[in-house]
Every structure is written in structure tokens, then in C-alpha cells.
Amino acid sequence: MISWLIEQTIFLSLLVFWLLITKPFVTRFIGASAQYLQWTLLPLSILVSLIAIHSPVQNTLSHYKVGQFILSAKQVSITATQNWLSMHNVLVFIWLSVVIGLLITLIMQHRTYIKSLQLTAIDQGTRQILISNQSQMKGQRDCIDFFQIYVSDKVNSPFVFGLFNTKLVLPLQFLEDFNQAQRDMIMAHELTHLRRGDLFWNSAAQLIVLLFWFNPIMWFAYGQFRQSQELACDQSVLASRPKSMRLAYAKALLLCNIAGPKIPLTFINYGAKNAMQERMLRLKTHKKSKVWASILSMLLLVPLTLSINLVNAGDKTGKQAEATSSYPTYRVEPIYPALAAEQAIEGSVILSFDINLDGTVSDVKVVDSNPKVVFDDASVIAVKQWLYQQPSKKLDDILVQLDFVLESENNKRSGAKHDTTVKVNDNLM
Fold first, then answer.
1. H helices then E strands: how many in the chain?
2. Which parts of the chain span the membrane according to its record (predicted)?
3. 399: which strand partners?
4. Mind listing the pLDDT tens digit for each residue in 299-340?
5. Residue 145, helix vs strand vs coil
């Protein structure tokens, strides 16, 4: 799990850098909607990598049984030993604890903020005034019936929230502070968010930030993603309106930009101050998004992103498969520790090592063992002396498990000492 997080955080960071570097070009020449669409590459990349690492071959490792002959044929009871968490498990525990802690904090902050607004539902007459023009617009009327409208004297900017029970919150003086044209465009802006499923994508983006909380680039990327979302929404709102409406829309955005409370990672903040300058600039140079160019850019980027992930996963799978498809040409049996044999202790050790081009083994490390320490030294000493058939290329981080088992005389005669390849559930790659 930890190795997957490290690999993905490196790949996603590079992908974010690419999106930010190309953002001015894509936004200017193709359109803000196309640039916003490219952010879907991040969750798509994560999904593909998760599918790849759970392929059957990826979760295989070689098992070897190490026996200690004893005269008694009866079953030997295993002495209870301490089984401390490995470093891998400690890191997973810390990572998961922070994820859960951040998730709980996010939910509590959001619920506390919404509760503090003291929302009041608008009457049917006011609702008709607000949505009268929107119901005539293509694509907007389908989502009008799926949200409720509330007002609050605690907010200065409109916002929508709720994946399943969507609500639109407006300032209490919304009808008085904005003229008809401005109200129509603000409503169109919020309806565009709903129509495109932006609340869902916001949740997906938040989940990515929580999963990679240790990477500051992901926190920065979330803000850039939301900025791209607003630019794309602006473009969509103005696409069906004359150029003369840009000034009214810009004034409406500025009025909505009065600073409100900053709640981390929530759906609020209609227009963040640090993004308003770019939004104003894009309004001056507004161009319709080129649909064909948007589709072409995604057709190029999606296969590239998927292929990088699949090649990376396939390379690891291929290495492990090549190692597990053949047995060592020379294998030294680990010496069963005398003290462990006397105390009837059994256990196992999982090791990671590299297979060099000449078939020798190097960089032998203990990944996990049960019980701790007891069989580690004997395992490392033995595996360092193993020889494999010369591979086509150097194989890194190959996994092998040594099972230390106390054998009876009957099992010894029946060939208890053997080699086999099995599937395991633990994802140790």
C-alpha cells in the first residue's frame, strides 16, 4: 500500500505540473471547458492503477518450506510469541488515521457551517421569479426541479451543496442587491454546476486530497481544479449570451466576491479572491470552447495516461511473474534456529530481493516476519546465496516467503519439504 501511494503521488504530481504548465495555452486556444475536463485524468489514473495492482499475477510470491525433523509424530503446539506491527503496517496505520481524521473534520466543519446559516426556504412565488428565465434555456430546465432554494442573512455569496439533497443558498437580499440580468446569470451559473455534476467531481477531488494528504501538491492542485471549474462555468454561462452581457456578469461576480468564511475543502466560496483576477481576464477575452479540440486533446491524453500506468504495473507484474515462473537453480536451505526448535516455534519470513543479470541475488531485505526477528537472520543468510536462471533484465523487489515448519517423521517421509507457488491476499508489492 505504501509503495503504491509513493508511486501514485509521484505520477500525480507530474500530471498536475503538466496540467498547470499547459493551462494558459489550453484555456486560451481550446477553451476553459477543455482544460477543466483534463482534470478527470487524475481520478482516472488512480482507478486504473488500483485495478492493475489487484491483478492475479501481481499478488503472487514464491513459498518455500523450511523443515526441522522431530521424532514425535504428534502435533506440536506453537508457543505464543509477540507479533509487533511491521514498519509497513505502522505507516499504513498512520496514513489511514490521518485520512479518517481529516474526513471527520471535513464533515463536522461542513455540517457546523451549514447549521450556523439558519437557512430559510423561499416561498413559491419568489422561486418562480428566480427560475422563470432559466426554465426556458436548453439544458437548465432538467435540473431545476432537483434542488431547493434557501436564503440566509449569514452569507454574501450564492453556493450549492448536497450530493443527494441539493440546496441552493442565496443571500437574504439577493432580489434587492442584483438586477434581473445579474440574477439570471448567477442562477445560470449555479445551475451549470448542477447540470455538469460538479458537486460529484468536487467530492472526488476532496477524496484524492485526503488520500494523498502528505503531498502539498495535491492541496495546491485542489485549488487550481476549483479555479478551472469556475472558469469553465463562466464560459458555459456566456456561451449563449451576447457580448454585451459580459459587463453585467463581471459586476455580478465582483459583488459575489465579498469575502466569506473560509472552510477548507468545502463547496462554498462562489468566487475566491485569488482566482477573481483571472476570471475577469478571461471574461474580456471570452471565446467559445472548441468541442472538436476538447475531444482531440482528451483522446490524446487519456491513452497516454492509461498506458503509463499500465506499463508501470505491467513491468512490476512481469518481473514478479518471471521470478515466480522458475525456481532457483541453486538454493541454500536456511538453518532452523536451535532455540526455536527447542521451544516448538514455527513461523514465516517474507523477503524482498533483486535478481541480477548473472542470476545472483542482492539487496535482500525482510519485508515481514512472524514471529519477529526469530527467523530473520537465518533467512537472509540463506537467500543471499541463492542463484536464479539469468533473467532478460535485472529484476527488482522480488518477493519470496520462507515457511519454518516443524515436521513429524511421517511428514518427512511423505515429502513435506517442497516448493510451490500460491496466491496471497496481502498486498505487499
1. 16, 9
2. 6-26, 38-57, 90-108, 199-222, 248-270, 291-311
3. 352
4. 555 555 655 555 555 555 555 555 555 567 888 888 888 888
5. coil
